[in-house]
Design goal:
This protein is mainly alpha-helical and 155 residues long. Helices cover 68% and strands 11% of the residues. The chain has a three-stranded antiparallel β-sheet. Strand 2 and strand 3 form a beta hairpin. The protein is globular, with a radius of gyration of 19 Å.
Length: 155
């Protein structure tokens, strides 16, 4: 193996397919943001709310934003009626950022369209092929998360 081959990043079919998938997701998210009249940073914050309300600090940390930047971002989303600030019922001192029904009708409908199209394509696969596809995507996701943890930990 030459020195160039040792230092060059891997370029397997799997890596190329991952790059293509990531590029397609980036392009799709850009289109969703444009349709919704928001920035991609705003969309990334909204995607964090998919599982339910979060504290602003949790959103900021996950996006690598400062408290000032996340406040401005939330103000923008609130002015478009995509999120609301609510009090945490468990601790009234805590403010939660919650998605609104408008978010799900405006942006959720676009993601639903993608999900339906993906499900339609999946019907072309056997149940075994579909299970392998899901397993492969989970493996890729796991590798990304493990790499993030390894880069995040000291040493």
């Amino acid at each position: 193996m030459s020195n160039e081959e040792k230092t060059r990043p891997p370029d397997s079919e799997l890596i190329q397919a991952c790059r293509q998938l990531y590029g397609a997701i980036e392009d799709f998210d850009q289109m969703v943001a444009e349709i919704a009249g928001i920035s991609k940073s705003d969309l990334r914050a909204l995607n964090r709310l998919e599982s339910g309300p979060l504290q602003a600090g949790e959103i900021a940390k996950s996006l690598g934003l400062t408290t000032g930047a996340i406040t401005t971002l939330i103000d923008r989303l609130e002015s478009k009626s995509l999120v609301i600030r609510t009090r945490d019922p468990k601790d009234r001192r805590v403010v939660l950022i919650e998605p609104t029904p408008k978010l799900f009708t405006q942006i959720g409908s676009i993601y639903r369209k993608m999900a339906v199209a993906l499900d339609e394509r999946a019907t072309m696969m056997s149940s075994k092929e579909l299970a392998q596809c899901v397993k492969s995507l989970q493996l890729v996701s796991d590798v990304y998360r493990e790499t993030i943890r390894s880069l995040d930990s000291p040493g």
